[in-house]
Amino acid sequence: MIGRHRHCIALAEYSREELLEVLDLAVSMKEVLQRPLKKVPSLRGKSVVNLFFEASTRTRSSFEIASKILSADCLNWTSASSSVTKGETLVDTAKNLEAMRPDVLVIRHSAGGAPRLVAERVGCAVVSAGDGAHEHPSQGLLDCFTLREKLGTLEGKTVAIVGDISHSRVARSDLHAMPKLGAKVRLCGPPTMMPAGVESLGATVHHDLREAVDGADAVVMLRIQHERIGDPLIPNTREYSKYWGLNAKKAEEWLKPSCVILHPGPINRGVELSPEVADGPRSVILDQVQNGVAVRMAILYLLAGGKAAESAEGKA
Amino acid sequence: MNAQDIDRSVRRLGRDIAERARAAGAAKDLAIVGIRRGGVHLAQRLRAELAQALGAEPPIGTLDIALYRDDLAEKGAAPVIGPTDIRFPVQGKTVVLVDDVLYTGRTVRAALDEIVDFGRPRRVWLAVLVDRGGRELPIAADFAGARVEVPDDQDVQVRLREAGAPEDAVVVKPRRAP
Asked: Which candidate, A266, A307, A239, places its Cα nearest to that of A6?
């Protein structure tokens, strides 16, 4: 359980305290990652099934490593080599996997709402690893974790999220989490990629990159998806890069010296970030990857650990 | 036990450990590890005693055994997990594991599992302020400040100034209903 929740599907429904429960536990989990022997027995005998209907390297491996460090067994299931190609429905697939008694199902799906649909029909805990343009809760949490680590706190900090806000589940999870932790969020991107009414979630909307990043403590650069290019939303990558990309010159002139740069990966080098910026001193992109393992360990621990039979252990 | 008794116990524990360490030729390779949370402050006090007795400060570390427990918390009550902090090589050391109260032995079992994941110590000794009996595992303290048989419906609490108590004390209280 994470606070009141049996599942981790949307940060929209998590309170500040519930977010902090995961983030605080992740600090201890990160310590485990630094040990010479990176293995603790806390989820021994538990199993985690990764159910991925969309391509993913980082997120899937991250959940897999997190499971293994906690000693849970982990099974990877990808749609390409499965009976989905034979016409099995999502719920049938999930119910069949559930019959094998996993403790946690980690689901990525191209349709927003898919993890919820499954969660309502299976008995185990469900973690969303990204669903459509809905949410990517573990990414939102790892962004918050990284910012707390780099900035000390999110309280009173300003975070600019730049890119295709409409299609980004990362932006949505960040937007649901960061303000609850006290951060001010600015959204910036082409008008064609800015959903209507996002101000109601407590963010300000900007269409000028310089204005959006001015004085910001952190900038989250979103990945521009190839399939959007050439469609009416943006004409070409050069134009996108010119107006919404960060290169060394802009970073130097526009960002305050302490500002850090995040990116959920994979990076389109030369489009949203120039290589000098992606590999530069402000970039915390690889910290994000490591923190992702710690945050996912915390999520799995809280969701799978909570179900163990109660047995009294005194103070010994 | 009052503040004076605790003080005396800690000093005696320090002397006994130092003596045994010298006899075993382990005085140079001694390390102290406190089990969170009750053992941490006690470990620091013991280290000061040992530094005096041996003329050198042994390295100190902290273990949080939450991830090694054999009973994951019931629903909605995940334990608070603090950091484990072992910054010296465990390999070849004589490790003195320190806790405030020894009861069922399960915490010590978990701590042993965790410490061997950091390396292979030469040997491990267990030092506690109070051994209250009631063991559920074959585990014994090598050093104990006090040994008393306390019934299962009672709690033994060690309160130390470092943890915010007005003064050092060991109290026995009826266990609160779960």
From this structure: A307
Instruction: Provide the whole-model pTM.
Output: 0.85
Judge: B69–A310 Cβ closer than 8 Å, yes or no. Answer: no
Q: Is this complex scored with an ipTM above 0.95?
A: no
* Cβ(A303)–Cβ(A31) below 8 Å: no
Q: Are A315 and B75 an interchain contact pair (Cβ–Cβ within 8 Å)?
A: no
- Integer Cα distance of A236 and B36 in angstroms: 57
Cβ B72–A306 below 8 Å, yes or no? yes
Whole-angstrom distance, CA of residue B95 vs CA of residue B128: 14
CB-based contact, B75 to chain A, within 8 Å: yes
* One domain for residues A125 and A30: yes
Closest residue on chain B to A32 (Cα) = B84
pLDDT at residue A231 above 80? no
Q: Quick one: closest CA in B to A299, which residue?
A: B78
Nearest chain B residue to A1, by CA: B76
Strands B169-174 and B154-159: antiparallel
Q: Which residue of B has its CA nearest to A315?
A: B103
Q: What's the rounded Cα separation, in Å, for the pair B38 and B88? A: 21
Q: What is the CATH number of the domain that holds A85?
A: 3.40.50.1370
CATH code for the structural domain at B3-68+84-174: 3.40.50.2020
Q: How far apart are CA A288 and CA A307, in angstroms?
A: 29
DSSP B61-73: EEE--GGG-SSPP
Closest by Cβ to A1, choosing from B76, B85, B152: B76
Q: Cα dist. A218→A81, A153, A175, A284 in Å?
A: 40, 12, 14, 10
Do A115 and A151 fall within a single domain? no
**CB within 8 Å of A223: residues ≥ 6 apart:** A163, A263, A264, A265, A266, A267, A268, A272
Query: pLDDT tens-digit profile of B38-85?
Result: 899 999 999 999 999 998 999 999 998 888 876 654 433 455 677 788
Q: Among A40, A21, A42, A38, which residue's Cα sits nearest to residue A304?
A: A42
What's the whole-number mean pLDDT along residues A157-178? 96
Specify if A236 maps to a domain: yes
pLDDT in tens, A116-133: 999 999 999 999 999 999
Contacts of B101 in chain A (CB under 8 A): 315-316
d(CA A147, CA A149): 5
- Flag if A36 and B118 touch (Cβ within 8 Å): yes
Contact yes or no for B78 and A302 at CB 8 A: yes
